[in-house]
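[Q] Does anyone have a clean structure-token version of this?
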Amino acid sequence: MSEYKKNSLSLTGAVSLGTGVMIGAGIFALLGQVAELSGQWFPYAFLIGAIISGFSAYTYVKMSNAYPSAGGIAMYLKKIYGKSALTASGALLMALSMVINESLVARTFGSYTLQLFDVGENSVWVPILGVVLLVVAFLVNISGNNIIGKSSLVMAILKIGGIAIFAIGGLWAAGFSFSEVVPSESLTETPITNYLGALALSILAYKGFTTITNSGGEIVNPNKNVGRAIIISLLICTVVYMLVAFAVSSNLSIDEIIKAKDYSLAEASRPAFGKYGLWFTVGIAIVATISGVIASIFAVSRMTAMLTEKELIPHRHFGMPGRLQKHMLVYTVVLALTLTILFDLTRIASLGAIFYLIMDIGIHYGVLRNMRKEIKARALVLITAIILDVVVLGAFLWIKASSDLLVVIVAAAMMVLIFFGEKWFLRRNENED
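[A] Here you go.
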């Protein structure tokens, strides 16, 4: 991975990468799905999701302070569990959740772009436009770090500023007052499992902070700046999510949000600003989704290239020229293209949430058991992070088992295949050595 240079990403660039992934998926792809599960209380699902993600971030900040690495989470898992099937499986689950995120954002790009045209909601153009976005993001990534860093920074400024304008304008147009902060709907009107399931998706909206850890080897002064970038990214996204959630809830009813859940921000801009507001919102969505995919592909290629170099996952060149990392870019984009074509937004988001939460629990448990004293982490915070993840994951699996069992079956099958496939691969390598 010599094509990546030490100190090539500033603190600002690292924050841009983190917010690029989070805001691209969190606001435009997941807001409607969170509202579908939690009703009028959905803005608070993003707030509680931020708190849970803050507990999770504690572990990553502690690990990054001690071991900043271009491998990020994959390197943390190797430190925790050694060269084992658990390490490789956990890292692949994280990589898969990030690839799933790319597909989620790619389809969101298609859904929002089509709002500019008189096209049906389930048009074949949604996956087609998603595929186009992934191809463009691949071309940007093979251009190198400088272009990625500069494009992420510019797009982060544009979309955060644009979304802030949308949120503040939407609140003003709807005549929002602080008396509306507390919903009229009683908490008891929705099952508690639905609220917890909404938290699983809201956590997925924040998981982009882990992208920063995968660039630890390139960030200036990584022992301090990786942690700083994670905290700053989470704070920025929490404020943005809350503003937008209240703006959408002020302009649309819950039924209207659910009906337009794949493009809820665009729908909310219609009553507030008319067609010009729609064009503006779709433009910001396009910028946000493009930057999100670029940042995510960058991070996944870093992680998988490191796993390959450490002989934790198999690799075939298939006759492709160039360096290992560019091969991993190809594999990442091909898998994301496949998911974009085959799955809808709801199922893509569900798979991503399941994989991420399981990997997250594995990180916290491993640090608690094996590395807590070494990195000077507090046991109470680690235990709290584990409990919160387990409760949210359990509720989400219960909801999906009741409403869409196929998602649970596919997730379980993939995890079993990954774990036993890794055991076979590592054992074969040991025998060959």
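[Q] Thanks! Anything notable?
[A] The two ends are 24 Å apart (CA to CA).
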